[in-house]
Design brief:
- The chain is mainly alpha-helical.
- Helix content is 60%, strand content 9%.
- It has helices spanning 2-5, 18-21, 36-48, 50-66, 70-84, and strands spanning 10-13, 28-31.
- It has a two-stranded parallel ribbon.
- Helix 2 links the parallel strand 1 (10-13) and strand 2 (28-31).
- The longest helix has 17 residues, at 50-66.
């Protein structure tokens, strides 16, 4: 998310949380884990196509602005915890 905030395309693996945030070909590129050739190909694609970097960078920034903040994400949890508090 930090990279998206700066409008940077992301290259990550399909393992882990990045695959939940990045739409391949939109905000960045995903490669299978343990596949250095796929990571190299993703890097080369961005090095070879500045227009793609710009397009993905704009999409990355837009995705970041739509991502919920910690306060927004935690609001339902806080409500639940407050509902457990004994009333006096």
């Amino acid at each position: 998310l930090e990279a998206l905030a700066f409008g940077l395309p992301v290259i990550a693996t399909t393992a882990g949380a990045a695959a939940e945030i990045i739409t391949p070909g939109r905000e960045g590129l995903l490669a299978p884990p343990e596949a250095p050739a796929a990571v190299a190909a993703a890097l080369q694609a961005l090095l070879d196509d500045r227009a793609l970097v710009r397009q993905m960078g704009l999409a990355a920034r837009e995705r970041y602005t739509r991502w919920p903040t910690w306060a927004e994400s935690f609001r339902p949890v806080l409500g639940f915890l407050e509902s457990l508090r004994p009333r006096v």
